[in-house]
Amino acid sequence: MLPSKSTAVISSNSMNPATTLDPGIGEKFSRRTKRAINHDGSFNVRRRGGPHRHDPYQWLIQMDWWPFIGVVVVFFGLLNTAFALAYLALGLDNLPGVTAPHNWWQDFLSALFFSIQTFTSVGYGHVYPGSNGTGFVSSLEALVGVLTFALATGLLYGRFSRPTARIHFSHRAIISRRADGLPCLQFRIANQRSNILIDLRARVLLKTVDPVTNNQQYNLLPLERDFISFFPLSWTVVHDITPDSPLHGLGPADYEAQSMEVIIQLKGYDDTFAQDVHARNSYTHDEIEWDRRFIRAYEVGDDGIAVVDLDQLHLTEPLEQ
Amino acid sequence: MLPSKSTAVISSNSMNPATTLDPGIGEKFSRRTKRAINHDGSFNVRRRGGPHRHDPYQWLIQMDWWPFIGVVVVFFGLLNTAFALAYLALGLDNLPGVTAPHNWWQDFLSALFFSIQTFTSVGYGHVYPGSNGTGFVSSLEALVGVLTFALATGLLYGRFSRPTARIHFSHRAIISRRADGLPCLQFRIANQRSNILIDLRARVLLKTVDPVTNNQQYNLLPLERDFISFFPLSWTVVHDITPDSPLHGLGPADYEAQSMEVIIQLKGYDDTFAQDVHARNSYTHDEIEWDRRFIRAYEVGDDGIAVVDLDQLHLTEPLEQ
Amino acid sequence: MLPSKSTAVISSNSMNPATTLDPGIGEKFSRRTKRAINHDGSFNVRRRGGPHRHDPYQWLIQMDWWPFIGVVVVFFGLLNTAFALAYLALGLDNLPGVTAPHNWWQDFLSALFFSIQTFTSVGYGHVYPGSNGTGFVSSLEALVGVLTFALATGLLYGRFSRPTARIHFSHRAIISRRADGLPCLQFRIANQRSNILIDLRARVLLKTVDPVTNNQQYNLLPLERDFISFFPLSWTVVHDITPDSPLHGLGPADYEAQSMEVIIQLKGYDDTFAQDVHARNSYTHDEIEWDRRFIRAYEVGDDGIAVVDLDQLHLTEPLEQ
Amino acid sequence: MLPSKSTAVISSNSMNPATTLDPGIGEKFSRRTKRAINHDGSFNVRRRGGPHRHDPYQWLIQMDWWPFIGVVVVFFGLLNTAFALAYLALGLDNLPGVTAPHNWWQDFLSALFFSIQTFTSVGYGHVYPGSNGTGFVSSLEALVGVLTFALATGLLYGRFSRPTARIHFSHRAIISRRADGLPCLQFRIANQRSNILIDLRARVLLKTVDPVTNNQQYNLLPLERDFISFFPLSWTVVHDITPDSPLHGLGPADYEAQSMEVIIQLKGYDDTFAQDVHARNSYTHDEIEWDRRFIRAYEVGDDGIAVVDLDQLHLTEPLEQ
């Protein structure tokens, strides 16, 4: 859970009231690294050595749909080919009902069709296991088949029920200016889905890299508002650049020199999944526009219903000087 | 999680101690909008443009049972019709066992029955694939069939296990008066289900619309009590209209002029689902009755068991002046 | 979530610093009620009127195993009997392969066996649908069958994966005495399962009934310790009866006159279910023993492993005066 | 949830501001116990007496994969053998289609193959139930079969979707020294999986055993930082040995005399499982090395991507004096 006070991300037991914050990404580096977080929320990190665990479940749950379907089809094909070859090795004479002319391709197809009929438990029975050998192999295949579809059931449910937030971020963060003249860092988000996010919280970190030592520093950027109760429309997240802000007094050249990256972490409760969902993103220094303001991205229709336009989420206009 | 102190919904990092609160529903509108939240908990918001994601899983999980059954039947019918047409195209001669007189409707039915027997993996076998073509198509259909039922399993489980609160709200909120004469806003809730909700929390926002600018403002209404440990009976939620309250000194005409809407958010732990459940509702200015009090909605039976009457939840009586 | 400070269960927005607490069980009653919470954690509450929702999923998830198996068998039997009667109505001549002598009982059995073979998708095929009528009905039954087993899969998973705590409570609460002479209320709990509960929290309420008005009052009883990090052995929960305690200065007769009931709510994270689990219980005034102390319920085996004895959890001895 | 302030694990209602903490593992023991927590996170505790609940679901969910597959195969074999014996008892004459020479082993195999074809709902039909007796038994077996695979589906999903953290701990904790000379206790962790842990929290307890009375005491060790936002690389957890620390002024001999054990509890949100995951470990006094420092375990590749080396997680070097 995100702490209700953003400052709580800094340990309460710190000896020195911490002004910097290492979010577990590391602090001292031999050279410049890429951005910490990519736009899809992944990290630019690799793992090496040790008892590294590849988790097939996680892999199958997280891959896109087309590769997943490919994996299913290939797995289904290979397993049935293997069983078909086993039936061929036992001899098709032991599968009464196979009547087609005997040549190797037709034999293989006959065995493959029988295998698939067994694996999926269709079992028409016009071909059936006529010996102990094919009886054993087909019994094993039937068990493997039902367990495989038990697995597939779990995987499909796992894929569908995995709670994911589809938060649409504005392409650029901007440096804008409040009515009282105070500059502020802003970006804008909207929900791509028609579901409702509740109790949405935002946390924003600033990553800076020392131009000389390459050491990385992480600072929490306090937000004008870090919590909203409901998230049906768009939300403009604002960090006021007060004299306390690590961004105070810096210009575009400083941002670039320090390889600044604004890291965003969102968390909310999704009514559909009935679970918390998370989203991440970051803006690097070249994804921050100066002296702009966002144009309102929603309007009210004739029927009194507010309409949010996801395409307009990115629209900004210059500040009048 | 709802913060344990209701004031925490206002960002702790606000530059100016916030008295208003934008719950992500928007603030500045070109014209009057409908109520923010409908009685079924939905928002009066539409989405447009952008990479809008229709999520079939969410759609199938959230629809009512009769439409869902309709979708299942139509999907089952269309898919089997398609496979039946494929078998027809390959020729019924390749499905040995089909013995009925050949006319197009009877042929189609024969192919359809074979298709369904394959799709559901019943596979009686009195009709069976007798060629490579029907062998391939029936193998594909068997795979599609078992994967479809794997999907259906996940969908049915997802529908049933989705934690939903069935909170019964009184039809009207009322403006009542405490024993010491202080006016207060009240509404009453009960649990429609026989399950037990634990650690139920309430949060109440007031939406007001500026009659001139149409700007919307959201204020948190502090509650006499915003948390109860157990929720077996009914709960009367009370906001005392102290001089600090945004409702202080206002009458029914003011409520209407400002298009006031009282927005309620409930959250509790459901013992059956073993998860948190949420409920939302709102009362618009014309759903608030003045100078009423609620009549007790529970009594004790002869067996010493308390009985809550959901029909009496709405009953109020005039305050004696 | 239980608040980290127990006092937080009393609303932070109370006008008067609350000393009493209505946990949603009701406050004013026309007559004496039974105990609030039974030993199995259920409440003595009924519901009446309104759009009362019976939720079959909750019912099937929460019932004991034997009744559940009974429901499954009866449902399976009735549905197959219905389909068998449909096949009989269509005429067994339309189910080629039925060869047994025709009498009504044998006919019914033949139709029933065919129905079950279709419902479970076994489909041997020695009997098969030989007309459009039986073709349609058997197609419908095959669809109903696979969807039924999809449902059963979800129900079985829901029953097994439902996180439940098996907390063993001492049969009696006791009034004991600290080393410094201060009296205290104690009860003892242990985990019946071999799983580990983490971050276990306890909250204890005292229900008192006014002997004259029958009004009920609920007070939070502060605990010497309301949180433990790990719960492998037993835990003695202690409320010190300081002058601030609502139990201060009261004797057994007062407990009975006020129908006192000590209500306990436990919450912890279960490592196996990977979810929070909850437990409830209560001790009524006649389940509280005076001037006792608990005997230690664990010892260290020869292998250096601590052993907790669930039978000794209840053992107490008199306080030496 | 771990409290945001570590001190909150000590009850806020304590009469005396607690300096020690009993984490439910027990306090007073007749003799020395083994370490409290093993490296696999299990506790050295046994249970005895009482209504001890063996939960088959938990057992099947938590066992390793090979034993689980063994249980499945044995269960499948025994159940089908039982049904095969039932068919034999009814007489193979009642299973038309069995054509093999009749000897007991071949008869048993024929019955077993028919049983498996029924259990898995393959039902080729070359053998089929030809009497009421075999009709009943095969109907029962088909029902048991589909329900068994419904169960297996739930178990497989439960095993895969159970959220587990694979945190790699350094083999040794070390006593190191800060730049300002203050000694500190350190250990290092990394994520074995390529998933991302968010909002990772650490809590560290110190167990000490009184050399004379064998009484155990648990103290919370405050951490330099007990929370990180993201956990892609490694994290060095640090307890500064200030004058307030229970470790202040102690040397290796004291650690051994008091059978010190440093107990670690980790909790974070796992993006893949979309749930919180927990990890536990402990270092006993002989697993703590003195006057060492950790060598950095990550570096930056040519492509600007940080690489963490799990093998180097354990590497330390002597402090220069």
TrEMBL record, chains A, B, C, D:
The keyword Secreted does not apply. Residues 1-19 have a biased composition (Polar residues). It is a multi-pass membrane protein. It comes from the Bacteria. Keywords: Ion channel, Ion transport, Membrane, Potassium, Potassium transport, Transmembrane, Transmembrane helix, Transport, Voltage-gated channel. The chain crosses the membrane at residues 65-92, 104-124, 136-157. Coiled coil: none annotated. Its main location: membrane. The keyword DNA repair does not apply. Residues 167-317 form the Inward rectifier potassium channel C-terminal domain. GO terms for molecular function: inward rectifier potassium channel activity. It holds the Pfam family Ion_trans_2. GO terms for cellular component: monoatomic ion channel complex; plasma membrane. Residues 102-156 form the Potassium channel domain. SUPFAM superfamilies: E set domains (SSF81296), Voltage-gated potassium channels (SSF81324). InterPro entries: Ig_E-set, IRK_C, K_chnl_dom, K_chnl_inward-rec_Kir, K_chnl_inward-rec_Kir_cyto. Residues 1-23 are annotated as: Disordered. It is found in: Membrane. One of its GO terms (biological process) is potassium ion import across plasma membrane. This is Ion transporter.
